[in-house]
Design brief:
The complex is a heterodimer.
Chain A lengths: L12 E5 L4 E2 L37 E2 H14 L6 E4 L16 H19 L13 E4 L18 H9 L9 H7 L2 E6 L3 E6 L20 H18 L3 E6 L10 H13 L4 E6 L6 E6 H11 L1
Parallel strand pairs in A: 1-4, 2-3, 4-5, 7-8, 8-9
Antiparallel strand pairs in A: 6-7
Helix pairs in contact in A: 1-2, 2-3, 5-6, 6-7
Chain B lengths: L1 H25 L7 H29 L11 H6 L1 E6 L10 E7 L4 H4 L9 H16 L8 H10 L3 H7 L26 E8 L2 H13 L4 H8 L3 E5 L12 H13 L1 H11 L9
Antiparallel strand pairs in B: 2-3, 3-4
The chains are: A alpha/beta, B mainly alpha.
Chain lengths: 302, 279
């Protein structure tokens, strides 16, 4: 740490964790058909909500699954990693019309999960809440906002609230930038390696406030302007960088011009970008995206 | 009247169910059509990447490794691509999962004497000013093509002005003098390996309830039954990856497009060993 002079051992490893979706209304023994919130399935049907949740049945995560997961990470991985890329969706889905989500619930659950994550990875010997043994880089998910998927350019109540929730892990000089766009950069190895937390909701087709990335007023346009400035600055400083965010930058998810422009940035900064890590789809896979094809698409539009 | 009102209720109920079903589908919930989503990606990759790769390999064989003008080498093809890596989740859509990435730190310590911490204050001050002035101003923001043509007519020096106001969200080409980064050639910070962990929920829940049945207290039963385990590593067969650079992913994508056995294994891992299929 070049600021404090403290030495830290680097392990050459980091964790990617995504889409926890804890559900405070999850009730063990209730019916899967009622989102694991209520009801009781007949004894011959095995459709009851288990203690730690059930794969493929469609319910969100019981809070105990999250607590035990974080405890397991603390016991088994925490001391062997350098940083954590944590790509959002820290609340339940809006899948029970009897208990619709509220903005307050969403923010409160995010606050709870953030505090839990900070407790696992902070430096227990320091009084400074900004001291971490393992650096955290959170990003915002489409379920972390209210209404679902919809997120406006800041400053808004929500961007201010997320700054408050992640205050200890967002570099202080980026407060204004975060208020505006809910994205930030963290140098995980100062002067050498950085991680970008990208607010992919500004590029996301399903966000009703996103039409394209061609007009200056569009949130995606402004996000790309931020991305371009940051990447150029990192290049000048010879800092390599991981990209991270919730919604993966693929054609299926992003507005056309946003997809092409974003892909082109990742292509033209291939001297510093190491890769991109995303969540949202719940499936472990990868997709190659073609930067030259995106350039052609943009040029033909122009 | 009664009949008609009942009909209305029925219709409303059907509509409600349809909306609920559509909501559940939209909001994630129980996985549906995930296999067909994956097959769709594979087909797309096959059409695009695999054919390009095959051509380049055949061409290189033919020319004993020498490059022919009209075809790209495998490395050149890879340079056009970047990899979007999408992780499994903790929510039990499938089994909960997390991933540990490993990266090259060789020579990092030797290099540490030259590290410099530059303040970001000036950069963000400038950036905020640009964002405030340029993107919050009303001027020329929402011009239609007709408006622009009109302005074009009126101002003879318009072209020069347009040039100055180029779209800043389109990057310039990477300067040729800049070498390829850690995603393309092995160097400091190149990703080398990952370890995929998962929690086998079926087993964990079974263990938990059987420990309860045997008289253990819930806390102890939970602690003894809950664990993540290694599902696979990137170095494991049947498609071991020697590192995790773009070339490795493109080679794998090409294999997945043609080898059914490998594809089945890849799908099993994609769905976190739950055995999920679309039907």
């Amino acid at each position: 740490n070049l600021e404090t002079g403290q030495e830290k051992k680097l392990h050459g490893r980091f964790l990617h964790i995504t889409d926890m979706h804890p559900d405070a209304f999850y009730k063990e023994g209730s019916s899967v058909e009622y989102s694991c919130h209520s009801g009781k399935p007949p004894p011959h049907k095995k459709n009851f909500a288990s203690k730690f949740g059930d794969a493929t049945k469609g319910c969100d995560a019981p809070e105990e699954l999250i607590d035990y997961t974080l405890e397991w990470i603390k016991d088994n991985l925490r001391d062997k990693i350098d940083f954590v890329i944590w790509t959002g969706d820290n609340v339940r889905h809006d899948n029970d019309r009897k208990i619709p989500r509220t903005e307050m619930q969403i923010l409160e659950m995010n606050d709870q999960i953030s505090r839990k994550m900070q407790r696992v990875f902070s430096d227990p010997n320091s009084d400074n809440p900004r001291d971490f043994d393992v650096t955290l880089i959170p990003s915002i998910g489409n379920n972390d906002v209210f209404p679902h998927n919809m997120f406006a350019l800041g400053p808004t109540l929500q961007t201010r609230e997320y700054y408050r929730i992640w205050d200890n892990v967002i570099p202080q000089e980026q407060q204004r930038t975060f208020y505006r766009g809910a994205c930030f950069v963290t140098e995980v190895i100062p002067g050498r390696l950085a991680v970008l937390s990208i607010n992919t909701l500004y590029l996301y087709k399903a966000n009703p406030l996103v039409d394209n990335c061609d007009s200056k007023k569009q949130p995606g346009y402004q996000l790309l302007a931020w991305l371009g400035s940051v990447l150029e600055e990192l290049r000048q400083r010879d800092v390599k960088v991981w990209l991270s965010g919730h919604v993966p930058p693929i054609e299926k998810n992003f507005a056309d011009s946003c997809y092409d422009k974003f892909t082109l940035w990742t292509h033209e900064y291939r001297d510093i970008i190491i890769g991109g890590l995303y969540g949202h789809m719940n499936i472990d896979h990868f997709i190659p995206v073609d930067g030259e094809a995106s350039r052609k698409a943009i040029e033909s539009e122009v | 009247e009664i009949n008609s009102s009942e009909d209305d209720d029925d219709e409303e109920e059907i509509l409600d169910h349809a909306m609920a079903a559509s909501e559940v589908h939209l909001m994630g919930a129980k996985p549906e059509n995930k296999e067909s989503y994956m097959n769709g990606i594979r087909d797309k990759v096959y059409k695009k990447v695999h054919q390009e790769v095959e051509e380049s390999v055949a061409n290189e064989d033919m020319m004993c490794g020498k490059k022919r003008n009209e075809h790209k080498t495998f490395e050149e093809i890879c340079e056009n691509y970047s990899i979007v890596t999408i992780s499994g989740s903790v929510i039990p859509t499938f089994n909960p999962s997390i991933r540990i990435w490993e990266y090259n730190t060789t020579d990092l310590e030797a290099d540490s004497s030259t590290w410099q911490k530059h303040s970001w204050d000036d950069f963000y001050e400038k950036l905020n000013k640009i964002m405030d002035n340029e993107y919050n101003s009303e001027e020329e923001d929402e011009l239609t093509i007709d408006d622009e043509i009109e302005i074009e007519k009126k101002k003879s020096n318009r072209k020069k002005k347009r040039k100055n106001k180029a779209d800043k969200t389109i990057p310039k080409k990477k300067p040729a003098k800049l070498a390829l980064g850690p995603a393309y050639t092995p160097q400091l910070f190149s990703p080398t390996k990952f370890v995929q962990y998962y929690a086998d929920l079926k087993q964990i829940n079974e263990d938990y309830y059987s420990l309860l049945d045997s008289g253990k207290k819930p806390g102890e039963a939970a602690e003894r039954s809950f664990k993540y385990q290694v599902e696979y590593t990137s170095e494991e067969g049947p498609y071991p990856m020697k590192s995790l650079m773009v070339e490795d992913f493109i080679s794998l994508a090409s294999k997945l497009a043609t080898d059914k056995k490998i594809w089945q294994k890849f799908l099993k891992r994609a769905f976190m060993s739950t055995g999920y299929t679309d039907d």
